[in-house]
Amino acid sequence: MTGQQSSIPCSEAVRQLWNYLDGAISAADQERVEKHLSFCRTCCGELEFAKELRSFLASNEAEEIPPDVKAHLERFVREL
Amino acid sequence: MRRVDGMADIGVQDRTKEAFQKMAVGELPALYSLARRLIRDGAEDLVQETLIRAYRSFVALKEDEAGARWLKSILVNVFRDELRKRARSVEELPVEEVEDFSLYRTLVEVDPLPYSDTLHLDFLRAFGKDDIREVLMRLPMLYRAPLVLRYMDGFATKEIARMLDTPLGTILARLHRGRKRFEAEMWAYAEETGLLIWEADK
């Protein structure tokens, strides 16, 4: 595959970063992204920030259910 | 058991009903949290509609331990139906609108927290739960739903495509646009609310 690698611009690398982190891109695209990251410090920064943002979203506190809404919904379940 | 329209002929046994109630009550906080992230108003209605649909098909649920995800996927189905009702007012945004925005680069260029050694992380930490919800609500529903389901609730993209009854390629494109839009809205929100000035003064 290495011989088929072609360079991609920053815009394309950034577009692929989240899918790259998800493991949701083809092997060929993965190689292209990694090749780009091997020499582009800005996109390496974008990658790190994408990781931070993902982790931030995943750890975002759940929306709390107000006690009165919870009580009302529990009553609703019992009435089904 | 007879109080909800359409339930009369379903024949859910008392034991099954009890099992459903136990599972549903345990999942109410998670269902409500997901509903609040998907819609600005009407989270309780969305949960109620979910409970009605779930109760109707509970007998088909084979594994109790799958209940949590099963209930969430029903909630997403209800949400999807709501989205379709509003389809005419929901439009795909041209990708160019947000394609060029990079929150990472914007932060480097503007450097809103000049004393920070971990600028990007500190920017994210300035956002509390309510701030994130407000930013999410600024996104069109089409983009908000895949983003919440993928990155906050941990559903796989294929699962999201199935739940929203949308081709996988479309979901991937909406995730990309949604992420870009989310970054742009985070920046706009921080500027509008003075979030960073306040953080810098702490």
Keywords for this entry:
heterodimer; A: 80 residues; mainly alpha; 4 helices; 71% helix; 0% strand; B: 202 residues; Rna Polymerase Sigma Factor, Chain: A; Arc Repressor Mutant, subunit A; 2 domains; 69% helix; elongated; disordered N terminus
Write the layout of secondary structure elements.
The complex is a heterodimer of chains A (about 80) and B (about 200).
Chain A (H helix, E strand, L loop, with lengths): L9 H13 L4 H13 L1 H18 L8 H13 L1
Helix pairs in contact in A: 1-2, 1-3
Chain B lengths: L13 H25 L4 H15 L9 H19 L10 H4 L3 H8 L8 H7 L3 H9 L3 H12 L4 H7 L4 H26 L1 H7 L1
Helix pairs in contact in B: 1-2, 1-3, 2-3, 7-10, 8-10, 9-10
What does this entry look like structurally?
The complex is a heterodimer of chains A (80) and B (202). With 80 residues, chain A is mainly α. Chain A has four helices and no strands. In chain A, helix 1 packs across helix 2. Chain A starts with 9 loop residues before the first helix and ends with a helix. The longest helix of chain B has 26 residues. Chain B is elongated, with a radius of gyration of 20 Å. The N terminus of chain B is likely disordered. Classes of the chains: A mainly alpha (80), B mainly alpha (202).
Return the CATH architecture of the largest domain in chain B.
Orthogonal Bundle
Quaternary structure = heterodimer
Residue share in helix of chain A: over 70%
Please give the radius of gyration of chain B in angstroms: 20 Å
Strand-residue proportion of chain A? under 5%
Q: Give Rg of chain A in angstroms.
A: 21 Å
Number of domains of chain B: 2
Order of helices and strands of chain B: HHHHHHHHHHH
Shape of chain B: elongated
Largest sheet of chain A: none
Q: Provide the low-confidence segments of chain A as ranges.
A: none
Number of separate domains of chain A:
1
CATH class of the largest domain in chain B: Mainly Alpha
General shape of chain A? elongated
Pairing-aware structural class of the strands and helices of chain A? mainly alpha
Q: If you average the pLDDT of chain B, what whole number results?
A: 85
Number of strands of chain A: 0
State the share of residues found in helices of chain B, binned by percent.
Answer: 55-70%
Q: Report the biggest beta sheet of chain B as strand number plus sense, adding barrel if it closes.
A: none
